[in-house]
Amino acid sequence: MSQRITRRRAIEALGAAGVTGLAGCSSESGDGTGTPADGGSTDAGTDGEGTTMGDSTSASGTVTIGVLQPISGDLQYYGQQGVWGFTSGLAYKAGVEPGATAESGTHTVTVGDVDYELVVRDTGFSADEAQSLATNLVTDEEVDMLFGCASSGAATRVSETVAQQAGVPYMIGPAASAAATAEESTCSDIVFRASENTAMDARSGGKYVAQESDVSSVFLFGADYSFGRAVVNNYEQVLQQEGVDIVGKRFVPQGYSEWEGLLDNAEEAGAEGIVGGFTVATLPALFTSFLNGDYSYRVFGGFATEITNAVVGSTLENSLGTPLSAEGIADVKMGPFTTRYHWNQYDNEINDAFVDAYTSAYGKVPDLFTAGCFTAASAIVQAVEASGSTEGADVAAELRGMTVADTPKGTDAYTFQEYNGQARSEMTVANVVPTADEWSDSWGASVQPSEPVARIPADETTIPSDGDGMNCSL
What we know:
Rossmann fold, 2 domains, alpha/beta, globular, 7-stranded mixed β-sheet, disordered N terminus
C-alpha cells in the first residue's frame, strides 16, 4: 500500500495545483497527420493490487489501465479507434476475439494469469476534461498506468500535470504532435508513445518528396495550433536538409476557407509542391479550391482516417465525377501521401489476423491510429510478462528500449527509443486510389491508399537523439 499512498499524496499535493493553475489554458481541438489529417487516443485504469513475482517469466494479478478517449461528440471515431485498437492488441495477446466497446466503464481482458482492467473515460476531446479525469483515475481509481488522448494538448497536459507528478506510467496514444515525446517538459522515463507522430509523417514524406519526386520547391501551409505547426516545422527541417527550397509558409485558423488567394501565392512563389498540416475542419475548402483552380504544383502530405478520406473522396467526385478512376485522380496531382498505418500497407500474419478480427468485431477495417494503439497494448503485456510484475514502475522499466514482438507492421517492428520513449517504426507512401469493392462495406470513403509505392525504414522515420527539434535526453 505504500506505493499507492505515495502516489495519492503526490497527485493531491502537486496534481491538484496543476489543475488549478492550468484551468485557464486553452486546449487543442484537433490532431492528426499532414494532408489529410486526424488524431486519436485511449486510456485505462487499474486497481493497482498487482503482484510482483520473483520469476521474471511469469506474472499474475491485475494491471489497471486508465483509458482517456474522446468517445462522444464529433470526433468520437478517434476515440473508438483508440479503444478498439488497444483492446485488439490485448485480445491478440490473449488469443481471443476483441470485444470491448468504446464506452465509459470498465472492461477486462485476461492474458495468461493477468487481468488487464481498462477503466475507460470520455475526454470529449478537451484538455481540461482529460486532466480532470486523469487526476480522478490516479487518486480515486488508483490505476497502475494511463493510456490515451487524441488531442496533443490533452496528452501534454496529462503528461505534465498528472502522470509525471504522480509517478504513474503514461502511454500516449494516438495524439500526434512530435513535441509530446521531444520536449523537456513532456518527456519522462515513465512517458511512452507507440503511436506514430507528426515528425514521422514529415521525415517520411519529406524524404520521399526530395528523393523520389522531381519537386525542388515547396510552399508549406498549416493550421495555427501545435499540430499544424509541428507538421510545417518538421517538413521544413527535413526538406531543407534534403536540398528542397521552401518558397513560403503560412499558418491559418482551423476552418479557414479563403484558399484561392493563398494557393495563387504558392503558384506565384514558384512552388512545385505544397504540403498542408490540417484536419477535416479545413481540408474540404483547401481541396475544393485546389481542384477548381489551375495550378501547376502537386499536393503532398499524409493519409488520414476514414473521416477525412470520405471528405477528400466527395471533393474529388464533385470535381471529377463518378465513378472515380486512379488515372483521373493522378491527373489532378494529389499525392502520393505518407501513411502511419492503413490496413492494406502490411502483409504479415499478425496484420492479417488483426484486420480480420477487427473488421469482424467493429465492422470497419483498422484505420490510421489502430496499429499504434494495438502495439501499445502488446508492449504492455510483453513488459508484464518479461518483468514478471504487474506494478507500473516495473512495467515502465521494461518498456524502456523495448522492441515490441507482436505488431500489425510485423514482428519486432516497433522499438521504444531510450532517449525519449517514442517508438520508431516503418512508414509507407501510397497513392490515392478509388476504394476497392472488397473494402466498400468496411471503409466509408470513396478513396483509399494504394499498395505502398515506397517504404521508409524505421531508423529513418523519427527525430534522432541529436537532431533539430529533439529536446529530450533521458
